[in-house]
Each structure stands twice: as C-alpha cells, then as structure tokens.
Design goal:
alpha+beta; five-stranded antiparallel sheet; 5 strands; 32% helix
Length: 161
C-alpha cells in the first residue's frame, strides 16, 4: 500500500467515525435508524470503501462508488452500526449489494473495526454489476435484496480488526 493511500484512508476513517457517531446520536441501542443517501456518512463511505478495496484488489484502481442505498441500519452499540443495502458502481452505474459492521474508536477519531462485504457475481468490469441504478429492475432489486442478503455469495470481503 502506498503512503498516499494509507494517509487517505486514515483521513477518511476520522471523517467516517465522526459521521457515524453523529448518526448514532439519539438512537437507542438495538434500534433501527435511517441514513439518507445524501448524508455526510454515505458520501464519506463511498470513498472509504473504495480505498479499502484498493488496498488488496488491483482491479479497484479503476473503480469507485457513486452512492449507497442503505436499506437497513441498526445501532449495535454506542459506537457501532450494522448497515446493508446496495451501492452504485461508478463505471457502469449499476447496483451491487453490500453489508458492513462499522465501529468508531472511543474518541471518534478513527475506525476501530469494520467487517465489509460487497458485490455478488454479475456483469460489468468487475463482474459484480447488477441492474442499472435508475431502472425498473433496480427498484425490484432493492425491494427483494433485504430478504436474500444472508444468501449472497460475496465477491469481496474486508476485515479490519
């Protein structure tokens, strides 16, 4: 990993932790909560997830994310959440599933841990593209995705202790 990528990830972790803790304020532990696609959390998550995947997968050098549709978000602890839904691949504007458990450090200055799963077999440059994000098929995909997330054969997984 290059020093530039490592420094970028550390900056993004600090920003993401702050946005996560902000989103978790006033939410009871165990409760479901909403995160809008236009939120600061989702904007930072786009860059952070792509940077994490670039660390271990050369094919992500030419790919990035262009948004998230968070279908489920649960507060796990005062500093962590489990989120799932779909993200948009920037190269072809197609959806692919994702799931993550994210925990901020106690001081909120970084990410203590993340368990990330992204993508399933499909089309497109990375072979994980589903329907185009603004299509009728995408609407159906998003409706049925929560009921099948436990059956997805994930293409990418990333764990930070």
């Amino acid at each position: 990993m290059t020093r530039d990528l490592e420094a970028r990830i550390l900056r993004l972790e600090s920003q993401l932790a702050s946005a996560l803790l902000s989103a978790l304020q006033n939410v009871e532990t165990g409760a479901r909560f909403a995160i809008e696609p236009s939120s600061e959390f989702c904007a930072i998550l786009e860059y952070y997830v792509a940077a994490l995947l670039r660390q271990k997968h050369a094919e992500w050098e030419k790919e990035s994310l262009d948004g998230f549709a968070l279908l489920r978000a649960f507060k796990n602890t005062s500093r962590s959440a489990v989120i799932s839904g779909a993200c948009i691949l920037i190269s072809d504007q197609a959806l692919t599933p994702f799931s993550a458990e994210v925990m901020a450090k106690g001081e909120g200055i970084g990410i203590a841990s993340i368990h990330l799963k992204l993508g399933e077999r499909g089309a497109g440059p990375l072979r994980i593209s589903g329907p185009v994000c603004n299509s009728t098929q995408a609407q159906c995909y998003l409706v049925e995705l929560p009921s099948r997330l436990h059956r997805v054969h994930w293409s990418y997984q990333f764990d930070k202790p």
